[in-house]
Amino acid sequence: MYSLNVPVPGAVERLANDLHPKLTGFDQVRDRHAVVCKRFAAAEDEYHRLRERLRSSLSPTPAFEATVTGIDAFETPTHGLGPVVYLAVESPGLYDLHRRLVDTFGAVDDELEGPAYVPHVTLARDGPPEAVDRLLATDIDPVTWTVPELHLWSRARRATAWRVSLPQP
């Protein structure tokens, strides 16, 4: 399994770290942060083929803007225990890229990658309602950045397998 991720800038990492004290009570707190653009159900031995297909699919993709706009939650996530609290991300360029890749590669999971796709940075999951409410009541300043590259994450390796630079428009 692979995922094409949007790395987040230092300002978003700092925001997640600043929110860390409010994540007490959650069973799972993320220490790595990224935005998933698209998942791929490919085995490790299919890596080179996947990378080459992605290379041609991504070749017309310029750098695009993304903005963390606030904190939200999935009360009942598609998979795993909930609730999941996250930083909401708005990005027309990311939505367009996601749709284009789903059209090309198909959806790994129709619920996650279909019309209900929600770009986000997961902070934590499986916490008590009062912890979720505390986070949802937290105001944050928006963080906007230009996405200069994408990372192909290998679940088996637990590492970035490939980075692709996006040309500036």
UniProtKB/TrEMBL annotation:
It comes from the Archaea. The keyword Ligase applies. Pfam families: 2_5_RNA_ligase2 (PF13563). InterPro entries: Cyclic_Pdiesterase. Keywords: Ligase. GO terms for molecular function: ligase activity. This is 2'-5' RNA ligase family protein. It comes from Haloplanus ruber.
